[in-house]
Each structure stands twice: as C-alpha cells, then as structure tokens.
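Let's do one together. I've listed all components of the complex below, 484 residues spread over two lines.
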Amino acid sequence: MQLHLYNTLTKRIDLFTPLDAEVVRIYSCGPTVYDVAHLGNMRAFVFTDVLQRVLREVGGYPVRWVMNVTDVDDKTIRDSSVGSAKWRSEMGQQSDDLRANLRAYTGHFEQEFRADLTSLGIEMSHFAQMPRATDYIGQMQDLIREIIAAGYGYTSEGSVYFDVAAYSKKHTYGRLFTIDTENFREGVRIDADEYDRESVSDFVLWKGRKDDEPYWDFALNGEDLPGRPGWHIECSAMSKELLGLPFDIHTGGVDLRFPHHEDELAQCCAGYHVHDQARFWMHNEFLEVEGKKMSKSLGNFFTLRDLMKQGCDPLDVRLTLMLAHYRAVLNFTFDSLRAASVARGRVQNVIWDLIDVAGVPEAADKSSMPLAVAEAFADDLNVPQALARMYEYLAANADAKNSKEHAQQVLNALRSINNVLAVWSFSPRPALVVPNDVRSIADQRWAARTAKDWAEADRLRSELGTLGWSMKDGKDDYTLEPLS
RNA sequence: GGUCCCGUGGUAGAGUGGCUAUACAGAGCUCUGCAAAAGCUUGUACAUCGGUUCGAAUCCGGUCGGGACCUCCA
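Okay, and this is what the predicted structure of the assembly comes out as:
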C-alpha cells in the first residue's frame, strides 16, 4: 500500500516513494547520552519505530534504519570530567585519558538507552546501525574540509564556523524553518556561545580545544586545530557515510527543525554538493504531562525507569505514547496510562482465547491486516485512527473463537497489526501456577456449587478471595485467576 | 518582539462543511444460583463571539485560554 507522509520540507502531506526501490533509508536523530532518557525522548523513538514498522508492514518496503548516538557534546564532556559528581562506579575508574573517560561515561548511558528501547518494544535487530559520533570524527573532518574548500566556512580562534551569509548567496538557508533574522528575540541564548563567530547566525563546525577537555587532532589547510566536532556535523557525516545522500526520511523532535536539522541540511548541501540530504523530514510533537510541559521544577519529569519502578509495564507506556497522532502534543496522564493498560490487557486476552482455539499463528501475511487499519497507518501514521479501526474489527469479529478458521483469520490480522504496534504477545497463554491449597478449595467449592449448596460455595469463594484468587464458573469447569 | 500550533463528551483522543470515531471510566441489559469474564446497548461533546453557507465542531475574522520555536532541548 502506498503511504502518505507529512514532510516538513514541503509543509504538506506527500505521497511517499522510495528513492531506491530496493530499500527505504531512514536516519533518526538519537539521544545525547549524558543521562537516562526521559519519557519525552521516548516518544520520539517510539514514533520513529512506528514509522519504520509501517514502512515494512504496510508499505512492504525493506528498511535500512540508522539512529545515531551523540557521545560528545558540552554535557557529556562536563559530566565525564575528572571529579564529576555524575560519575558512577559502574563506569569504572577515571583516568588521565579524557577521551577514555568520555567513552566510559557515554558507553554506560548508551547501554541504558538500548535497554530502554528494548523495554519499549523497539527491536535492536531493526537497526542497521546505531553509530556513535566519536567513531566518525574522520568523516566529519573531511566534510569540514569540503565546506571550507567550497567557501562556506572560516576559521576563528582555533574553531571553524559555517558562514551562513556566504551560503545564503547561492542556497536557501531556512528550508525547514523560516528564520526571521530581523526579529531575533532579545535574550541570553544568542550570545551564550563563548566562541567567536562573525555573525550570530553562523554556527560552529569544529570547536577549538579547551583545557581539561577531550580533543581530536585536526589538520586543516596546514593549520593545526585540535578540538572536537560541533553538534550538527555528526549527523551530516554519519548519514552520508551510512546511508548515502540523499536518503529517504530524516526524523527527530520538532525542536530539532531549527537549528539542528537546518544546519545539517546546509552542511550536506555545502560540503557534499547535494541539494537534499533527505527527501522527507518528519518531526514529532512534544509530550506534556498532566497538561503541563515536563520539567523537573514541576515534579512531573519522568523516565521510563521511574514508571517501571512504580510497577508500570513498559509496553503500556509504549501504547500510551502511541495514543495521540505524532504531530499533535501528547498529554501523558496516569489516567491514560491506566486506560491503555486495561485496553492492552483485554486485547491480549482475546489473543490468548484465539490461540486456545487456533494455536500460535505463523508469521502473518501482510495482506491479513484489515484494510481500514492499514489505510489509517498509511495516512501519515494515524495510529489513533488505526487503533479505533482495530477495535471495530474486533467487535465485528467477537465470535471468532467459535471456529478455528475464523480464529486463525483474526489472529493473523492482529499479528500483522502488532507488527506495527508491538504491544501484544503471540506466545501461548502463560501457564498459571495454582498453589495446591487454592486448587483444593476451588475443587471443594465446585463440588458445593454442583450440589447447589450456595452458602458454602460463596463462603469458599470469599476464602479464595482472601488468598488472592478469583474463581470463575464455566459451564462444565471453572477457571482461577489471580486478583491483580 | 517575531513565527507557528492547539482548545472536542468524566478522562485520553481521531475526524473535519451535512452520515456526530475509538479507548478507559460510568449506567443499563444479556448470560449467571449469585458473581466474574465476555457480549450488547447507552451518553449528542467540539473554548467564546460574530461572519460565510440551505447547513459549521469542521471555512473566515475577533476575543479568551494553553503551548512550541526564534542558535547545541526529542
């Protein structure tokens, strides 16, 4: 099925066609690994995961998905510095080798990040690569040389800058974001950068070395410029190296449209001489908590781990993060988390009921996804709509467990849907371990019930209740379930 | 100051000129000894004021409210 996706470059929903019929190439801006990622970050990653899964399952395309890990920036350097309070014993011993410290520090949070993604149903096997910025310093330096050679960069005080004015003479700066240079807000951030650049709109390609900071050697036109890469250069260099330019889709949070993505695009255009770094640029909206922006001062700042410690299932969190369209602000509330959890559990029970009848399904045929659901996914990833269509489909097939074939059909449909949503299990229902005393009371109650001794049956049921079990009477048999 | 987005039933959240999703919660019914589970039914909501229109929650304008971005935040 053909997909239509919103493209920040054209500011409308466009028909998606891959540049290369063989594979769809996606680059996602990943995390800066200076700390554990929070729920807002997670929304961005779940969004991209849904995108690549829809491309595979609904679009039928093979996907080459790359997500970077930023392991060198102000924060990672600050927090990995010798004597940093953020250093943890799991990271090992700090040494005199600042780059080794940086690697140990970021390596720790990279592992945490991968674990979070896995908890959220994002499969590591879906990534072609998850490159670290510091492994591509050479490619970044080559790109900077190209940009300088093309006349779009300059050196100042040991740092290298991108010359936006020079670039703007031949190219458009502001393709993803309309920049109103006349009305820059008067504020602190513009002058916050300590480096010297010729114009406030210029941005840094390479930051000159500072004392007590890790650095890499860099020879540029005979000049020795030890230092480290600027923020934007890594994504330009790594996306070109690992995907080739232009590639199909570039993703990130809305905040990255400017300056990060605008600058990435300009760098690629200036240094690699391609008009487009990517055909489609897709940006997810932010997450709010209980109607307010997530912030530490409001006390509504959550990480996935916080929620898991409170006993939340991460897949409930995943479903909650998919409840709103990716381009709409998502209001994360504990009510909606609870609602997602209940709804997910009910569908899971349907799946287990169907498996009882039809067995565990084979890998689903893509065509088994109900058309209405597929169309919703294909329409700029309208997951809320797809969920609604799925629930309608389930209601229309509520009697599926009455026939093996029907059960199989619904199971296949759900399996295909789940290849996108990834919140349900298609393994057989886990066997319940019922303690002997519970089993024995249940048998007694069943006997009492069969003998129509209702008083005794009710007494034994409440006894089971105090032991944490609920007994459900069937026609010829009963089932036991632990009370949650 | 500039650019832009949003305001939908108790909650979350699609839709977008007439056919008024969906989920959770609530209510009722069926089933059941009573339950539970499940299924069915049910709620006429679209900030506000005006305009366009045969018809607007949906288009246009004002107002009020919330939010994002405006140089290293997903």
